[in-house]
């Protein structure tokens, strides 16, 4: 019974995530729009979806991929987005540090450092990117603007899968020429054991 219950909860979480994926992909269908996006009513929508899950502790977050050269512009965008959506004034801020994309830093008085390079992770990676939490089901979440890539191998799994799928699609189109045949869209989503540790890092 416990196993069946766990399966049921996991399935509902996957279904809820699929709904948000569909909403976001249709709201921002062009690659050029990312990472400068932001869904109006994200927090309210995800809270409503979360109410259908039996696990009331579940929260949802929108994480975007930001190249190092985009960080300054992205931070400006995020600050305006929070203001337009009625987020608390302190959203994305850390006392003694200010506003911005950040990572954990045990040598800092605040426990964080601003992260504009994307090259510091707790594991080996070939992806020099930042993946900050832009939106959250809780508007006052301390995870806002935290660079999840620092400690999540799941980010690399998704990025590598997407990159491989793009290469496959390019090869497919070259082989098909002017054919109207289409390639099945890749599924790069994964189910992880995401959790927030005592020091508020996300790990998988």
Average of per-residue pLDDT values: 81
Query: Which regions have little confidence, pLDDT < 50, spanning 5+ residues?
Result: 194-204
Largest sheet: 2 strands, antiparallel
Structural class by sheet pairing and helices:
alpha+beta
The 3D shape can be described as globular
Global Rg? 18 Å
Span between termini: 26 Å
Strand content range? 5-15%
How would you spell out the order of helices and strands?
HHEHEEEEEHEE
- Largest sheet, spatial ordering of strands: 1-6
Give the helix proportion (percent range). 25-40%
Number of strands: 8
Our count of helices gives 4
Draw up the topology in text.
Elements: H1 2-27, H2 42-50, E1 61-63, H3 71-84, E2 93-94, E3 98-99, E4 102-104, E5 112-114, E6 133-136, H4 153-176, E7 195-196, E8 202-203
Keywords:
single chain; two-stranded antiparallel sheet; disordered C terminus; 36% helix; alpha+beta; 8 strands; 4 helices; 204 residues
Structural write-up:
This protein is of the alpha+beta class. The protein has four helices and eight strands; from the N terminus they run ααβαβββββαββ. The protein has helices at residues 2-27, 42-50, 71-84, 153-176, and strands at residues 61-63, 93-94, 98-99, 102-104, 112-114, 133-136, 195-196, 202-203. It is globular, with a radius of gyration of 18 Å. The model is unreliable at 194-204 (pLDDT under 50).
């Amino acid at each position: 019974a416990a196993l069946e219950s766990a399966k049921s909860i996991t399935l509902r979480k996957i279904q809820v995530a699929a709904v948000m994926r569909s909403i976001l992909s249709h709201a921002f269908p062009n690659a050029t729009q990312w990472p400068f996006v932001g869904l109006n009513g994200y927090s309210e929508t995800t809270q409503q979806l979360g109410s259908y899950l039996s696990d009331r502790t579940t929260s949802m977050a929108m994480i975007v991929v930001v190249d190092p050269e985009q960080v300054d512009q992205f931070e400006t965008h995020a600050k305006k987005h929070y203001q337009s959506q009625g987020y608390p004034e302190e959203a994305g801020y850390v006392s003694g540090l200010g506003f911005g994309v950040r990572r954990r830093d045990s040598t800092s008085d605040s426990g964080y450092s601003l992260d504009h390079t994307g090259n510091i992770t707790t594991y080996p990676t070939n992806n020099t990117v930042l993946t900050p939490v832009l939106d959250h089901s809780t508007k006052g979440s301390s995870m806002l603007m935290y660079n999840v890539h620092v400690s999540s191998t799941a980010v690399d799994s998704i990025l590598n899968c997407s990159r491989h799928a793009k290469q496959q699609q390019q090869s497919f189109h070259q082989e098909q020429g002017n054919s109207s045949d289409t390639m099945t869209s890749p599924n790069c989503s994964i189910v992880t054991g995401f959790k927030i540790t005592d020091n508020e890092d996300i790990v998988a």
